[in-house]
Amino acid sequence: MIEEAIDIKKILRRYGLKSTPQRIAVYSAMRELGHASADVVFQQASAKLTTLTVATVYNVLESFVQVGLLQRRMSSNNKMYMDVNTYNHCHLYCEETHTFRDYDDPELMLMIHDHFRNKRIRGFDLHRIDVQLVGKNRRVGRSK
Amino acid sequence: MIEEAIDIKKILRRYGLKSTPQRIAVYSAMRELGHASADVVFQQASAKLTTLTVATVYNVLESFVQVGLLQRRMSSNNKMYMDVNTYNHCHLYCEETHTFRDYDDPELMLMIHDHFRNKRIRGFDLHRIDVQLVGKNRRVGRSK
DNA sequence: CTTCATGCAAAACATTTGCAAAAAG
DNA sequence: CTTTTTGCAAATGTTTTGCATGAAG
């Protein structure tokens, strides 16, 4: 716990951000959550830092995105979702619950990367290729 | 124009929807726009059908999505975006302007499709694979 | 000290809802 | 006629803003 806070302070500094309890709480929450919307981050983080405000969560998330500590994700939910993992990876996106799961598939990534290696797209600066496997989380369930 | 209305009436009927001036205006707008957020659809459609309401645009868009006449798209803009093309294709997504362009790449689609042919993903029912080329529209411009 | 981050409350958006009136088939 | 669909206005949910206070380096 104290370990983690120290750890996070280093990370914040490395990204050129001042270390504050709020930022530590938010980043710590994101590490636990992996992917989350702003309101869930707020719930999770404010459980530990009771003075935390929704507006601050938005500020902090935005500053994290600016420096590249978090990534914003696309959703079909009209809500903001964050991803704690900023390397290039695929996602499983559940259309029902609007939740994300990382899906690592290096072979696929390589294949796609190769495909675009020497391609230029007219009038477009490509930053990254985002592959989403869209579907539904299967109910883990009592069978039949 | 009259031609188009007749055309759209047929399409609506084929999708099991009653034909109304509002639905015709919205679908017609979507055909012109290709991809658009609800407010842009409203602007475009209400220019021709002045009685049209924002709430109706949302209703109509939702009913179109239900029957598969339009597709909802993911965005990082906290807004609803629609796509008039429902076949499986890639998109260029501009992070700056939050606009979409279709990007057809059958070779890529085939490759990805093959890759997933015999794959099962634990606890997930895959509906479709969504590939977004994320970046920025290049300013068409006066050089240098 | 000086600058930047936070809390608070209000504002700004985007979307949804409930219900009466109007239109479609 | 009967069933949907629409318009309106109000409600909801999410994100942003402005500004005074407080904390970080």
Describe the fold and architecture:
2 copies of one chain form a homodimer. Chain A is 42% helix and 23% strand. The first copy, chain A, is α+β, with helices and mostly antiparallel strands and 144 residues long. The first copy, chain A, has 2 domains: 2-83, Arc Repressor Mutant, subunit A, CATH 1.10.10.10; 90-135, Dna Ligase, domain 1. In chain A, the strands form 2 sheets. A 3-stranded antiparallel β-sheet of chain A has the order 1-3-2. In chain A, strand 2 and strand 3 form a beta hairpin. Chain A is globular, with a radius of gyration of 18 Å. The mean pLDDT of chain A is 94. At the A-B interface, strand 4, helix 5 and strand 6 of A face strand 4, helix 5 and strand 6 of B. Strand 6 of chain A pairs antiparallel with strand 6 of chain B, so a sheet runs across the interface. The structure holds a DNA duplex (25 and 25 nucleotides).
Highlighted features:
Arc Repressor Mutant, subunit A, homodimer, 42% helix, three-stranded mixed β-sheet, 144 residues, three-stranded antiparallel β-sheet, DNA-binding, Dna Ligase, domain 1, 2 domains, 5 helices, 23% strand, alpha+beta, globular
Q: State the assembly state of the protein chains.
A: homodimer
Largest interface: A-B, 37 and 37 residues
**Helix/strand order of chain A, N-terminal first:** HHEHHEEEEHE
- Protein structure class of chain A: alpha+beta
Strand segment count of chain A: 6
CATH H-level superfamily title of the largest domain in chain A: Winged helix-like DNA-binding domain superfamily/Winged helix DNA-binding domain
Give the CATH architecture of the largest domain in chain A: Orthogonal Bundle
Number of helices of chain A: 5
Radius of gyration of chain A: 18 Å
Please list the strands of the largest sheet of chain A in the order they lie side by side.
1-3-2
